[in-house]
Amino acid sequence: MNILLFKLTLMPSVMALITLAIRRWGNKIGGLIGSMPWIAGPILLFFILEQGKEFGIRSIQGVMTGILALIAFCFSYSAFSRRWSWLPALLLAYGAYTVTALIFYYLRLDLYLSYALVIGTILVALWVFPKPSTEPFRVRRLPFDIPIRMVITTLFVLVITGLAHVLGPNWSGILTPFPIQTSILAIFSHSLQGSNAAITALRGLVMGLLGFTTFLFLQAFLLPEFSVAVSFGLAFIVNILINLIASRIW
């Protein structure tokens, strides 16, 4: 199949399914499901198909930095959403994301230390994450919210994979977990259902980053030994198991 056609069919389908999962099982489980590597996995796959397996493996170190920045985004947006509407909360959270990404990019931590730091940061974030109030969620939907989410997600994937050869593996990896899907989740939850819904969804997403991070970390060791299908399949099983355990603990 043509890679461009693959992008144009896979990515909107993934975004639509995540949105339907949130509607079916609620914001917490929806956030947990949304944290699975539905976007980062295909982006890594496209890196490998277009730039080669070595490029994909080298991008994983940058992905760890991107995940730290993503945690900063989720925590910041949740905190700011209590006081402000979605736009100022989003801009401030993007600021937190950018500062975090730049700091850890220049620190140049190795893969093992980065992975340990990400896991530790996730656990701390879950401990201190803003708590939603007891106020019930509003239930409101835009008539075309699913197509809007599908288009935005697809455009992001096209841009980041299209610029990979210019950005190089490190910055391509850093931008792989860029909170485009997370932003969509936060904005729609916040604007349609209120701050509580956004906080609940983003906390579920941070919880799911335990498995998401491990999925990507394992690729650094699986891809050199196995095919892409086997590497992704084995790591995806591990991701699911971690998410199931995390959902029971938290």
Automatic annotation (TrEMBL):
Signal peptide: none annotated. The chain crosses the membrane at residues 6-22, 29-49, 55-75, 87-106, 112-129, 150-168, 174-192, 204-222, 228-246. It comes from the Bacteria. Keywords: Membrane, Transmembrane, Transmembrane helix. The keyword Transmembrane helix applies. The keyword Coiled coil does not apply. This is MFS transporter.
